[in-house]
Each structure stands twice: as structure tokens, then as C-alpha cells.
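My current task is to audit a protein record that another person submitted. I have pasted the whole thing underneath without changing anything:
***
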Amino acid sequence: MKKVLCFGDSNTYGFNPINGTRYAKTERWSGILQGLTKGDFQIVEAGCNNRTAFSENPAGKMMTGIKILPECLTDNFDIVIIAVGINDLQFSYDVKISDYEIGIEKLINIVKEKLPSAKIILLSPSEISENILNSFFANLFDEKSIEKSKLLSSIYEKIANKYNCEILDLNKIATPSKTDGLHYEIEEHNKIANCIFELLKKF
């Protein structure tokens, strides 16, 4: 049985934009994926609310991707799914888009160093929608965050090609909820899980 690590942020954790709770395992994409594989893969969930990819998160090590990822790779995973990066666009980090490629590459290199034989699937996040400006998350993201999010697809694609990773552009698959413009509702989690499942069939 091949082991798959799902390393991500709140959309991997299963944050429900409607009420702020966590979706049930059968409702979030990583849990749905386990059901789809019917025991052919072991899916390990490692999502965390508010996790950044590379920015120094004041909430600590668990929330900072490049710091906690090595500790998540202690098992012999065959496939690592990386689904972080949108939280680095919070205005408090003031990340230059030119630094973004370097930051995501650090995650890729951590996986390659710890598990050189593992396949990597990179999930490029959906663009943040204008709805976020009227939500609770308006205290974290602004119009600049929205504009920067529109540039991420090309950056992730470039990195995937450079490091021979599989890539799924979630911007082409799933639409964030109108409630907060950031998180997915259940139907979108289903779409994501099914697209990843099709990729896993290749391995």
C-alpha cells in the first residue's frame, strides 16, 4: 500500500467557511480521497488552519510550512501533496511576488532531501475572490492579496516543471465560497479529491 502525505493549510484541514467548524472526514478532500482509493493508498492528513508555506508565522513552528514539513516526513511516504501558499499573501507578511518562487522551492527541496524517491504533487491555490473583503478574513487579506493570488498559477506551474512535479491548478478545478472568498464548500472538496485520485492512478 502506497503512503500519501497531504500537507496543507486550512483547505486541507477542512475549514468550513459557513460556520468555521471542521468538515467531517468524509467531507474534506483528503478524507474523501481516502474513500476513493478503496485501500490502495494510505492517506495521511496534515492540514493546519492558517499555515503559511514559507513566511515566518507568529503562531509558531506548526503554522510555518518550511519549519514543520521536515517533521511530517519521518515516515516513508511514496507521494507528498503540497497544498500551501495562500496564507503567505496575508498583508502582514508583505511578501513580494518575486520571493514567492524561492519560498515554494524551499518546500520542494525539503521533500527531495528527506524523501528523494517520493513523487510530489503540487496544488496551486485558487485565486482569492473579492468576497473576502466583506468577510472575517478582511483583517488578514486585502486587495493586494487578491491581485497577487492571480499570479500564483504561473509560478506554481514553473516550479512544477523545474522540479518534475505533478501539478493541479485548483483555480481551474474549485471555486472558493462566496461566504469568505477563500475556503471551499463541500462540492469543491469533492472536485479536488476526484482530480487528485485521477493523478494517483498514474503511480
Q: What stands out?
A: The mean pLDDT is 97. Helices lie at 10-13, 29-37, 65-72, 97-114, 143-149, 152-163, 186-200. DSSP finds seven helices and five strands in the chain.
